[in-house]
Amino acid sequence: MLLPRHRAMTLFRSLPLTLLLGSAAPALANLDSAQEEPDRVTPIINELETDESVEEVEQSTLRGEPVAPPEIGTLTTGPAERTAAELTTPGSQSPADLAANPVAQIPDESLAIVMEALPSPQPAAPLSLLGSEVLPGSSARLAWSPGIQIPGLSQPTPVLAVNGIHAGPTLCLTGAIHGDELNGIEIVRRTIYDLDPEELSGRVIGVPIVNLPGFQQGSRYLPDRRDLNRHFPGSPDGSLADRIAHSLFENVIRQCDMLVDIHTGSLKRTNLPQLRADMNNPDVATFTQGFDRMAVVHSSGSSGMLRSAAVAAGIVAVTLEAGESHRIQEHQIEAGVNSLTSLMEKQGMTSRMFVWGEPEPVYYDSDWIRAQHGGILFSEVDLGAHVSEGEVLGYVADPITNAQYPIRAHSNGRVIGMAVDQVVMAGFAAYHIGTEAEIPAE
Ligand SMILES: [Zn+2]
């Protein structure tokens, strides 16, 4: 059944999350209780060691001068550009395309000039994914199973695929690689269900909940307590995490031209909506230009992270961070959906007359400021605030002695991530301050 586009959108948007999540739905209902019972068995210090939000960014340095991303509208690399080049190949219009676009048959010289200037969309091929074939102009709900469970009890992970009527690049969206990061699940759902395959050029493949076991337990980790985002591209005969990573990478990720892996802050830290991107890589730097109203934080990425493995495999990839774990945050979700909408427009996959906001800065330098004392953290600044060197960001109060220890900014910058008020120990990374470095003139 074909619904008018606006009706279809309303319908999809009003669908309860449980419909999409299928068998995973009962876990959602339990999220509140899961939130009350964090993984008590894991000492906090262990989680910090594997916290990508802190360590991965801290260890990132630029090689030489920062790569200046090109101006908007001058995309010169990346899959969309390759596709656009194919689209303009003369004489490659198929009869089906001509039928769909009858204006091309009118032998009018001025029209012919226009047609030459505007690449006419090419019909898409069927998408072969996970043993199924998704026809052009259709969408499907598929299942990925990493094959690590008891076969009779195996619970496949839903994969949503939209194959546009026109040829184009393949964009992949992954959420909840850390099972307690919920905003990404909703960002993937809204983005995918907002697409009309009849108007899409290319393909969008979404895995809303990669770490289904972690999601069901409200846990960041896999059942073996490993961080899945340290095991890509994985291996078929390694640990549980290696095998899951390998299966996802081979069966889904290798299909992608572009990947956006969606995360949130960890351990009661929240992030301004931002991209983590290796700005040393010119293709990745160019790719970041497609995301509307999204700050970019340079980060080379760690070994085993999905985005690092994807880039190594020739897939342009970034991490999108939005908000904090264990929560569904409307504002952060809207920012993520808006940015993915702009990305698809930028890549020529959709045409919705997207209205761009002011470009956001690139933070080539960022620094985590840690609490020097244990106690209760009270913040004086808000996420996104611009701060000056020496400014008090918050206090750690000792609940026994009444001592109060200020935490100050080390430099001028912007609060791009921060801990929510909580009990902290000495060494806890409390404020992430981004510094906009000078981009050398061309
Ligand atoms: Zn994460």
Automatic annotation (TrEMBL):
Residues 60-79 are annotated as: Disordered. This is Succinylglutamate desuccinylase/aspartoacylase family protein. Its cofactor is Zn(2+). It comes from Marinobacter suaedae. Residues 1-29 form the signal peptide. It holds the Pfam family AstE_AspA_cat. Residues 167-341 form the Succinylglutamate desuccinylase/Aspartoacylase catalytic domain. It comes from the Bacteria. PANTHER family: BLL3975 PROTEIN, SUCCINYLGLUTAMATE DESUCCINYLASE_ASPARTOACYLASE FAMILY PROTEIN. Keywords: Hydrolase, Metal-binding, Signal, Zinc. CDD domains: M14_ASTE_ASPA-like.
